[in-house]
């Protein structure tokens, strides 16, 4: 599957970033019971966190791009934890947290940036359950944060 994912990334004009190191007391991913739990990942572009609040200074399209960048980092963390992506069986669930202004209600549309990438990379195995949640603030003032649960082979 790793070769297939690499090919799809190339077709999409994307590449996996270097998996980000934790900035506090946690690990990027934990494998237990056939599942890989990936900690929340922030959107990085050119080494900097994409910041801002949806409904104030970030529009839905930019939020979708930030969610996509988070999803790329989730995949990079999975690859770092598993050695390669051939062990991925299915993307089980994404949690998408959107830095939202009061009254902003387009979290599902923003979250589609992450969801669409998972389906583009993993086909049917990328179809997942999801939560799209508006929050008042995120670490480093990130626009979006995404965590994941991924089914993996032993």
TrEMBL record:
Protein name per Swiss-Prot or TrEMBL: Putative endoribonuclease L-PSP
SUPFAM superfamilies: YjgF-like (SSF55298)
InterPro entries for the chain: Endoribo_LPSP/chorism_mut-like, RutC-like_sf
Domain Endoribonuclease L-PSP/chorismate mutase-like stretches: 8-143
Pfam families in UniProt: YjgF_endoribonc
